[in-house]
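Hey, can you fold this one?
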Amino acid sequence: MESETTRFNFSADKSENVRELMTYVLGCLREKGYNPINQLVGYFISGDPTYITSYKGARGVIKRIDRDELLEVIITDYISRL
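Sure. Predicted structure:
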Protein backbone atom coordinates (compact mmCIF):
# COMPACT_ATOMS: atom_id res chain seq x y z
CA MET A 1 0.00 0.00 0.00
CA GLU A 2 1.36 3.38 -0.97
CA SER A 3 1.51 6.10 1.65
CA GLU A 4 2.90 8.94 -0.45
CA THR A 5 0.55 11.65 -1.63
CA THR A 6 0.90 12.60 -5.26
CA ARG A 7 1.44 16.32 -5.74
CA PHE A 8 -0.42 18.25 -8.38
CA ASN A 9 1.04 21.54 -9.55
CA PHE A 10 -0.99 24.15 -11.37
CA SER A 11 0.33 27.23 -13.07
CA ALA A 12 -1.21 30.34 -11.52
CA ASP A 13 -0.61 32.19 -14.79
CA LYS A 14 -3.55 30.44 -16.42
CA SER A 15 -6.08 31.20 -13.68
CA GLU A 16 -7.09 34.63 -15.01
CA ASN A 17 -7.67 33.24 -18.49
CA VAL A 18 -9.73 30.39 -17.03
CA ARG A 19 -11.84 32.87 -15.05
CA GLU A 20 -12.55 34.96 -18.14
CA LEU A 21 -13.53 31.94 -20.21
CA MET A 22 -15.69 30.51 -17.43
CA THR A 23 -17.46 33.85 -17.01
CA TYR A 24 -18.30 33.75 -20.70
CA VAL A 25 -19.54 30.14 -20.57
CA LEU A 26 -21.63 30.82 -17.45
CA GLY A 27 -23.23 33.81 -19.15
CA CYS A 28 -24.13 31.71 -22.18
CA LEU A 29 -25.64 28.97 -20.00
CA ARG A 30 -27.72 31.52 -18.11
CA GLU A 31 -28.86 33.27 -21.30
CA LYS A 32 -30.16 29.96 -22.62
CA GLY A 33 -31.99 29.26 -19.33
CA TYR A 34 -29.78 26.45 -18.05
CA ASN A 35 -28.73 26.00 -14.43
CA PRO A 36 -24.95 26.49 -14.74
CA ILE A 37 -24.20 24.40 -11.65
CA ASN A 38 -26.07 21.37 -12.95
CA GLN A 39 -24.56 21.67 -16.41
CA LEU A 40 -21.00 22.10 -15.13
CA VAL A 41 -21.32 19.18 -12.71
CA GLY A 42 -22.49 17.01 -15.58
CA TYR A 43 -19.55 18.19 -17.67
CA PHE A 44 -16.98 17.64 -14.91
CA ILE A 45 -18.24 14.18 -14.01
CA SER A 46 -18.68 12.87 -17.53
CA GLY A 47 -16.23 14.92 -19.58
CA ASP A 48 -19.01 15.25 -22.15
CA PRO A 49 -19.01 18.78 -23.60
CA THR A 50 -22.64 18.47 -24.69
CA TYR A 51 -23.58 19.52 -21.14
CA ILE A 52 -22.41 22.97 -22.25
CA THR A 53 -24.54 24.91 -24.71
CA SER A 54 -23.16 25.59 -28.16
CA TYR A 55 -24.83 29.02 -27.99
CA LYS A 56 -22.33 31.76 -28.93
CA GLY A 57 -19.59 29.14 -29.15
CA ALA A 58 -19.57 28.37 -25.40
CA ARG A 59 -18.96 24.64 -25.95
CA GLY A 60 -15.92 25.38 -28.08
CA VAL A 61 -14.65 27.79 -25.44
CA ILE A 62 -14.90 25.30 -22.59
CA LYS A 63 -13.22 22.59 -24.66
CA ARG A 64 -10.15 24.86 -24.94
CA ILE A 65 -9.63 24.59 -21.18
CA ASP A 66 -8.51 21.36 -19.55
CA ARG A 67 -11.04 20.17 -16.97
CA ASP A 68 -8.26 19.83 -14.38
CA GLU A 69 -7.43 23.50 -14.86
CA LEU A 70 -11.07 24.48 -14.48
CA LEU A 71 -11.43 22.50 -11.27
CA GLU A 72 -8.18 23.91 -9.89
CA VAL A 73 -9.35 27.50 -10.36
CA ILE A 74 -12.82 26.79 -8.97
CA ILE A 75 -11.51 24.97 -5.89
CA THR A 76 -8.80 27.57 -5.27
CA ASP A 77 -11.39 30.32 -5.48
CA TYR A 78 -13.75 28.47 -3.13
CA ILE A 79 -11.06 27.72 -0.55
CA SER A 80 -9.80 31.31 -0.59
CA ARG A 81 -13.29 32.44 0.45
CA LEU A 82 -13.52 30.16 3.49
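The mean pLDDT is 88. Let me know if you want another pass with a different chain boundary.
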